Amino acid sequence: MELQSIKQRFGIIGNSPLLNRAIDIAAQVANTDLSVLVLGESGAGKEFFPKIIHEASARKHNNYVAINCGAIPEGTIDSELFGHEKGAFTDAREARKGYFEEANGGTIFLDEVAELPLSTQARLLRVLETGEFLKVGSSKTQKTNVRVVAATNVDVPAQIRAGRFREDLYYRLNAITIHVPSLKQRPEDIELLFRKFSTDISEKYHIPPVTLSEEARQLLLSYPWPGNIRELKNVSEQITIIEKERPIGVEALRRSLPNLDANRLPVFLGKGASAGMSEREILYSVLFDMQKDIQQLKQAVARMGSPSAAGAAGSMAHVDLDPVVEYPDQAGYTILQPGAPAAFPPGGNANRLPRQQDGSHLPNVEIINEPVQAPEEDLSIDKGEKTLIGKALAKYHGNRRKAAAELGISERTIYRKIKEYGISLPERDE
């Protein structure tokens, strides 16, 4: 079957190269008996591809059975797929054929195959490898000749790592893979699909056809369509029926896109993060970025305390320099206040004194050539503990019982710590 005839036969609309490639693969594998795994987002149109494969194959005159694996309860899924014997379980009043027996000679489509329980996955693997299965409650092996096409919208390798899907079954199903593109991957088809859905509903209910303003058209094309074709169909039908104005403006289209703002919110992934990362990986990336920023901030603060930084800061002080002395272009002084030391730039002359705006020199100003460094703080636990105990004792005027209660320790512990650190007690206030 040719590409255009396949589209017309199955009502597929679109000219996206990704869509054409997926249809072409389905047509090429149709005449084989290889298992096919169809991957794609929910609402992207995965259900068309097993039909294409079946109708283009030699099995087209036999049964085609489509099953939604996620819609069948776990307790009855084996019976539905493989059948059961009379009395196999409660209410099994008669024997029943399963879908694999009904589809013998034809094609069976397992939609949402990743929802199958692990026990059912083992049964399915046996069918794929040998064509044999057992009915529930039977010990007699039965044969079936069936072509299996499966589909899912989940990340199967992730399910395998989580222990929820058999790896051997995945490789057995994945003989041929068809990737169905999402609507945001085929933007050239969005407007075409919108007009098709709108025309169909307007003809059905005798409603004037819908046209879009240029602003509405741009919004239609820029919206991410998380629900894919299914969402686009719902929006186009809703607008056609509800909105009375023609052409449709951007505000009318916005009213039909309730998730517009939520879908357009930016997501911060960190500097080194990517969209495919897990939440834990993204968190680690953000934390590492914060750590780098903190280190850079520390370095910047350290540079501000260096002599060169002090000189740069002093050059902005509102102080007039002595006009009889020539200063280098990069000379600068940090004037703190009268009586406080000022940092003198490296290579400068300590005899060059700054003057106040009234012409007089600042009194008691000391010029120093060495960088001013903050004293290193003792961050040891013992030092901090001794300080806290001393403050608590001072607060309660030497009352060790009250001080211990304030610190959340026992009186015995505070007695030992006082002796250990040699803390002198203030005048006791009982």
Structure write-up:
The chain has 430 residues and is α/β, with parallel strands linked by helices. Helices cover 43% and strands 9% of the residues. The strands form four sheets. Strands 2-3-6-1-7 form a five-stranded parallel β-sheet. A two-stranded antiparallel ribbon has the order 4-5. Strand 4 (132-134) and strand 5 form a beta hairpin. Helix 2 crosses helix 3, helix 6 (118-130) packs across helix 8 (167-173) and helix 9 crosses helix 11. The protein is extended. The protein starts with a helix and ends in a 9-residue tail after the last helix.
Whole-number mean pLDDT: 80
Strand adjacency order, main sheet? 2-3-6-1-7
Helix share bin: 40-55%
Give the strand content: 5-15%
Poorly predicted tracts of residues: 263-271, 273-278, 312-353, 364-370
* Terminal residue distance: 102 Å
Gyration radius, to the nearest Å?
39 Å
Q: What structural category characterises the helix and strand content?
A: alpha/beta
